[in-house]
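Page 47, continued from p. 46.
Same chain as before, 211 aa.
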Amino acid sequence: LGLDRRHLEWPWLLSLYGMEDPVPASGWQMRGHYLSRYGERLFLDDTPLPELPSGLVAALAHQGEIVVASDHALFLLTEEGQVIDRQDSLDGLPPLLHGLGLAGGGTLAVRGDEGVYLPDPGTGLWLRQPGETVHWATPVALPEALRERLALAQRGTGPTLERLLLDLHSGRVFSRYGVLLADLAAVLLALLALSGLWMWWPRRRRGPPPR
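Result:
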């Protein structure tokens, strides 16, 4: 019957199995790619980026590479999503990042609690630059086709029909309370069988009634 090959993706069933995370509606677009956060992972298009923390602030394209700002650091990525550099407060960045953008001349800029920071051309350290005009990166809506691929990449395929039938019999589909209910039903059926045997056995010993 191929029950182990038929995957079910009904929303209510995925919810029972804890597989229904809300798919992100927006992300950051750059050079034909989209960066988004789904659950506790970051994705470049539908590819997970395990080297990056989940605290995504913003992302943009810069000089042929991808710059990602998390809560506490900047990451420089190739277009394939490989991390090639990381900067944090040791490089002069503010302890907490709130925005990422481009200032005049295409210079990277970040926003911290005390204002705007730009990298110093001489030292490479980030310095506060009051009054700097910055075009901040903002999220855009993700294409529906990408959202569907993200859902598949994050949760995989749904449970098979075979697993659903087995879990229904065992009660596991309704978590531990379902297992307890299934066990209780099994005990009740056993008691009914024993009581029926107890009622039938004396009659059998007495033999058939006289005609």
